[in-house]
Amino acid sequence: MNQKFLEKLGMTKKEVVLYLKLLEFGEARVNNLAKAIDENRTSTYSLLNSMLKKGFVNFYEKRNIKIFSATNPQILIGHFVDDGKILKSFLPELLAITNKYAQKPKITFYEGVEGIKQIGEMLLEIPGSTRYSFMGFDKNTIHPEVNKYYEEDFLNRRIARGIKYIGIVTGSLPMATQYSHDDKSHLRELKYIDAKIFPIQIHIDIFEKNKVAIYSYHKDDLVGVVIEHEHFYITMKTVFKLAWAGVDSFRK
């Protein structure tokens, strides 16, 4: 495989080797990865931390041990827009490596700006789908890079892909008047609740296929988790529908 196109996305040569090995393994502990790429444990941890910040790997914890996995190549296509065409030409080869391993982790943790962007890219994976959200929004505390991503990049691509957004948003009722004129063109339907009575300080997205994302884009606390499980998805979707109906009941 020509590895230089992965380097163009920001990986070092050693990170490319590690990324491809993670695709092959599916998931692995640091010790196993260190042996596989012929590096010591400390160096491997350093590589993984660097890749985590760049959005190339994810991890979850099992019995207090971190288990790492490579970011899905399909997510990288949308995430690294400038090099998307280059990556797309290599996608079949990357997916061939990916398909060698068994089922991926069902719970994945994300950190930093790149981690939050990765969650955003997941929300864009299925054109014509519907996303249900509980949204704790405060423009004064959102990280500026995350805010720029959502306003200048994510929103336009969501609309272009016909992905509908149905959300319950914390905020005063005047917000509904201020933003409602954009709802139809933005493929969204929103209901606003009083943050003092119903404080929501994180963001929860329920979306296809069988995913629930829970995350914060507060500038001092960029962290999130995605759960891929049918029962979680169905239950959280039901909770959302109950809350959606309850907003109107509360106002009455």
Question: Can you describe this structure?
Answer:
The protein is 47% helix and 23% strand. It has 10 helices and 9 strands. The relative contact order is 0.11. The chain has 2 domains: 4-105, Winged helix-like DNA-binding domain superfamily/Winged helix DNA-binding domain (Arc Repressor Mutant, subunit A, Orthogonal Bundle); 108-251, 2-Layer Sandwich (Endonuclease, Chain A). It is of the alpha+beta class and 252 residues long. The longest helix is centred in the C-terminal third of the chain and has 22 residues, at 230-251. Strands 3-9-8-7-4-5-6 form a 7-stranded mixed β-sheet, with helices on both faces. Strands 1-2 form a two-stranded antiparallel sheet.
The percent range for helix content is 40-55%
Q: What's the structural domain tally? A: 2
Task: Return the string of H and E elements.
Answer: HHHHEEHHEHEHEHEEEEH
CATH architecture of the largest domain: 2-Layer Sandwich
CATH level-1 class of the largest domain: Alpha Beta
State the major sheet: 7 strands, mixed
Over the alpha carbons, how many angstroms does the gyration radius reach? 19 Å
Spatial separation of the terminal alpha carbons:
63 Å
Spatial strand order of the main sheet: 3-9-8-7-4-5-6
Shape: elongated
The number of distinct helices, counting runs of at least 4 residues, comes to: 10
Task: Give the amount of beta strand, in percent.
Answer: 15-25%
**The CATH topology of the largest domain:** Endonuclease, Chain A
CATH superfamily of the largest domain: Endonuclease Chain A
Q: How many strands?
A: 9
Mean pLDDT: 83
Low-confidence stretches: 172-177
- Class derived from helix and strand content: alpha+beta
